[in-house]
Amino acid sequence: MRSLLLAAQPIGQRRELVRLAAAVRSRTPFLIHGPPDAGKTFLVRRFLSGLTREEQGCCVYVEKFVSVHSLLEAIVGRLFGASPDSSGDAPWTPHELPPRLKGSSSGRLRVLLRTAARERRLCLFLDHFPPISSFLLRLVKELIWKDESSVNLVARGKSRDEIGHAWSIYYDSGYRLEMPALHDREAKALLDQSVRQFGLAPLATAEFRAEVLRRSAGRPGAIVKMCALAANPRYHFGNQVKLHLLHVDYLMQADPAHRFLLAETGSRR
Q1: For the sheet containing 150-156, what is the strand order?
Q2: For labelling, which of 45, 91, 100, 216 has a CA lying 20 to 30 Å from the CA of 248?
Q3: Per residue in 19-53, pLDDT tens?
Q4: Positive or negative, the Cα torsion across 35, 240, 229, 259?
Q5: What's the CA gap between 116 and 128, in Å, rounded?
Q6: Residues 62-85: pLDDT tens digits?
Q7: Cα(241)–Cα(260) distance, rounded to whole angstroms?
């Protein structure tokens, strides 16, 4: 589902792109945060896709790593595992570790990463990271302050409590970007685009449009994903969309916390 928004035409986020580009150019560490489907991943990938191939060669994007070791494997694999034929891949294209590095300890991978960081002035994007550990916190600080790398985190949450220890790195408001909702005009334009993309014109009544805009709260990922779900006949009743069922299923897919709360609510009935 994540790729659906990336397939959409760019709408909004111009100011956010300018801030991100300025931060990367100045080697300023950056925290991009906000609720699920606020457009955080879309912003980063949109920024990376606009770089030259040479600039992309210094960038590494890692999504949904489950441990520090898996993170190190992903970054080192990207830096040292690319073949000549794949050197033009986008920064988010994963590469396996080369055979000589498979089975390496976290310590060895960390040394390789920091060596590469000093040589290449890396720009790292770590997307939807788990609760940050003291080891990962120390590694990120070393990469930023000792190796002059640009380390940018993409986090779900709005507050310091939600984001946890990572907030201590991005303590200044100039280091943080909370993703705003789309303006009404932008949200409506994205909805129109999604209705066309998923062939929803016969079902896109005034009620459907109003409910998608209301329930999405201007979050671009929510608009696109609800429209993608609405294309499934499971949600159709005649020429209408079962909006409540659609929204419940969207919430369960979008955020594990909602999945838990909905399950708890159902078990009490």
Answers
A1: 59-63, 123-127, 150-156, 30-34, 176-178
A2: 45
A3: 999 999 898 999 999 998 999 999 999 999 989 88
A4: positive
A5: 23
A6: 988 888 999 999 999 999 885 544
A7: 25
